[in-house]
Specification:
single chain, alpha+beta, eight-stranded antiparallel beta sheet
C-alpha cells in the first residue's frame, strides 16, 4: 500500500508551530523517556506532529524490526510504510482519522488525560509478523491545544488479531471502544477486578505459583484457581500469561 506521510496528519489542524525555545524544553521529554526506557523492556518513542516524524526512539528492540534506534528516528513515519503490512497500514490510517475526530470533541482542559490503545502487526527483520500493542498519550500541546508531542509505548499484544481500539481517560471508569464495522465509538464501563482478583493477578505477574499465592493470601488453592478463572473470563483471554499481558497493556491496576 502506497501512502504519503501527510495522510497520517490530514485530520489535524496545526497552525501554531512550536518555537525554538519550545523545542529546547522538549529535550527534557526525550531525556525522561530515555531514562524510563532503561528501566523496562517496553519500547518507547515520541511522535512530533509538527515535524511529522519522531522526536525520540528508544533502543528497546521490539519496535525496531532489526534497525537501530537512530535509523528509525531518521525514517520517521516512513518506518510504518516499510514495516507494517498493507492491511494494517490501512487500519492505522483509519485509527488516526477516528482518533483525531474523537480528540476534537474533548474539552481543552482534559486533552492531556486521554490515551488510545490498539494492536497492529510489524514485519520483523526475519519477515515474520509480530502483533504489538501500541499505546499513545498526548505529552505536550501547541498554543491552540492540539497535540504537538505524543508518548508511545510498544509491547507484545495479548490479543490474536489487529484492531482492539480503545480510548481511556485518567481517573474515569468509562472507556470508548471503536466499532470498525460501523465506524463509531461505543462507551462502556472499564473492566474492573475485585480486590482479591487484583492480588492474585499481581502475585501471578511476579511468577508465584497457585500454591504460593494461596499461602501469601491465606486462602485455598481452589480459591486462587477460582479467581484466576474469573480474571480469564473478564479479560477474554486463554491463560494467566495472556491475562498478565492484558493487565499491563490496559492499565488494569
Amino acid at each position: 500500500m502506497k501512502i504519503n506521510i501527510s495522510d497520517f496528519f490530514s485530520p489535524m489542524e496545526l497552525r501554531s508551530p512550536p518555537t525554538t525555545k519550545d523545542y529546547d524544553k522538549a529535550q527534557w521529554f526525550a531525556q525522561v523517556a530515555d531514562a524510563f526506557s532503561r528501566t523496562t523492556n517496553q519500547c518507547v518513542y515520541i511522535i512530533d506532529y509538527y515535524k511529522q516524524g519522531f522526536h525520540y526512539v528508544s533502543d528497546n528492540p521490539l519496535f525496531l524490526c532489526g534497525k537501530s534506534a537512530k535509523a528509525v528516528l531518521k525514517s520517521g513515519y516512513l518506518f510504518y510504510a516499510y514495516h507494517v503490512p498493507a492491511e494494517d497500514l490501512k487500519l492505522l490510517l483509519e485509527i488516526n482519522e477516528a482518533g483525531f475526530q474523537f480528540y476534537k470533541q474533548i474539552p481543552i482542559h482534559d486533552r492531556l488525560l486521554y490515551s488510545i490503545s490498539y494492536d497492529f502487526h510489524l514485519i520483523k527483520a526475519n519477515k515474520r509478523l509480530a502483533l504489538i500493542n501500541h499505546q499513545l498519550t498526548p505529552l505536550a500541546l501547541d498554543a491552540e491545544f492540539n497535540i504537538w508531542l505524543a508518548l508511545c509505548i510498544v509491547t507484545h499484544s495479548s490479543n490474536d488479531h489487529a484492531g482492539n481500539i480503545l480510548i481511556t481517560k485518567k481517573g474515569s471508569n468509562n472507556t470508548f471502544e471503536y466499532d470498525q464495522k460501523n465506524r463509531i465509538w461505543i462507551q462502556q464501563k472499564k473492566m474492573n477486578l475485585t480486590r482479591q482478583e487484583k492480588e492474585v493477578l499481581a502475585f501471578s505477574m511476579q511468577g508465584f505459583t497457585i500454591k504460593e499465592i494461596a499461602q501469601k493470601l491465606d486462602i485455598t488453592a481452589a480459591t486462587v484457581k477460582f479467581h484466576r478463572k474469573n480474571i480469564l473470563q473478564k479479560f477474554k483471554v486463554k491463560n494467566i500469561a495472556e491475562a498478565v499481558s492484558h493487565a499491563a497493556n490496559y492499565n488494569v491496576f
